[in-house]
């Protein structure tokens, strides 16, 4: 077993990159032993989609790329971070019933709560931010 594994990908801040980020993370998790049909894999794919969408939509052209990092610490904790170069941290927005968007962070917080995970945001040295999620790792590592 490895004490630490990590993988990352940097993508252009365009809509098509959301699916690419999701595929990348899915592939990494499968390589690390998480079955693609595991419930936590579905949650992670949704979370990555929401974080990547935020990196594309809410940076208002100030972040030409975003980076997705996947880290497994001591075969116990999975961390996924999405980094962009926009300085504004995510905000909780009221999600009106008829609103088509604006629920991403609410969805992520709910998934973190039910999975025993947590969400955090850290500034980068370059003036941007990384939105991190951390979850218990449910699979043996190959």
UniProtKB/TrEMBL annotation:
Q: Which Gene3D superfamilies match?
A: Histidine kinase-like ATPase, C-terminal domain (3.30.565.10)
Superkingdom of origin: Bacteria
Task: Name the Pfam families on file.
Answer: HATPase_c_2 (PF13581)
Q: Per its UniProt record, what InterPro entries does this chain match?
A: Anti-sigma-factor_SerPK, HATPase_C_sf, HATPase_dom
Residues in domain Histidine kinase/HSP90-like ATPase?
13-133
State the Gene Ontology terms under molecular function: protein serine/threonine kinase activity
Recite the UniProt keywords alphabetically: Kinase, Serine/threonine-protein kinase, Transferase
Q: What is this protein called?
A: Anti-sigma regulatory factor (Ser/Thr protein kinase)
